[in-house]
Amino acid sequence: MSNCGPQIKALFLFNHRFEANMPMLDRIYGGRFANRHFIMPFASQPGPRISRVAEQGRNFSGHLAQSARDWVEPGITHYVVVPDDLLLNPQIDENNLVAALKLAPGQAYIKNLISADALRFAWPWAGEVAATFRRSSRMLDTAALLPDAA
What is the mean pLDDT of the chain? Predict the structure, then answer.
């Protein structure tokens, strides 16, 4: 990695196990961000670019902390966190992200800090969606997906 400017890594944060989105995200962002990493609850095949976190998507605030050992890398100066189901402005890439955010050397951009779990109650359709679930249904049966206790 060269030290001539900011080194960016894109972190794609999944709130559910939508593995089919990974190839599409690679197509969309591959030419814009050379360093990409996926963070996904209960990913079926974790690897060098895919972190498997043991937490349901509705509680995704711990995903970054659980997976940091997989994606923190010496030489990377900035990480851009992109939800897997949202699109980053197509004009933004690893070469202009820092300038587009008007960051001085050593600065970072965080729009605001609030508990990510608190946001789920701000979704206007939450009650409507919850009313469609059967009482016995589950978001994801995690019992078979959790690793053995150490």
Answer: 82
